[in-house]
Amino acid sequence: MGEGRTTVTAQEIRATAELARLLVREADLERLRGELAALLDYAAQLAEVDVTGVPPTTHAVELACPLREDVVGRHDSRAEALSNAPASEGAFFVVPAVFAGAAGGSAAAPAEADGSDDQGAS
Question: DSSP 3-state assignment of 93?
């Protein structure tokens, strides 16, 4: 197996934390860089394993997965669904932006816990 060491920059940790809406203290950056690099190295090791002839699986043990008939039942109307939303615009839910701009933009700030976020539709 390969012995490469993945390099993760502090900026990559900050950007990933921002996208995941995680608050990361500067004091934790170096530890997180090491942990993420070790995780990525392990994933690279797993990718090198020869799985020729091994059938793909979704679970370690076989599970019974009973299926039901695909029948349309009662569901909320659009108006009912939108009436439960904290914010809507026309026929759409209004949510905070996750990605700002098409290239290289930064994520919007997370909404306040009290729901007082005043961002528009994305």
Answer: strand
At 37-73, the pLDDT tens digits run 999 999 999 999 999 998 888 888 888 878 888 889 9
Give the tokens for residue 92.
């759409």
Q: How far apart are CA 122 and CA 98, in angstroms?
A: 8
Q: Give the pair of three-digit tokens for residue 17.
A: 């934390």
The whole-angstrom separation of Cα 73 and Cα 99 is 35
- Tokens (6 digits) for 110: 């997370």
Percentage of the chain modeled with pLDDT above 70: 78
Angle separating helix axes 29-47 and 10-19, nearest 10 degrees: 90
pLDDT of 68: 85
Residue ranges of E strands in the chain: 88-89, 92-93
What's the chain's length in residues? Answer: 122
Q: How far is CA 4 from CA 33, 41, 44, 116, in A?
A: 15, 7, 9, 47
Q: How far apart are CA 6 and CA 39, in angstroms?
A: 9
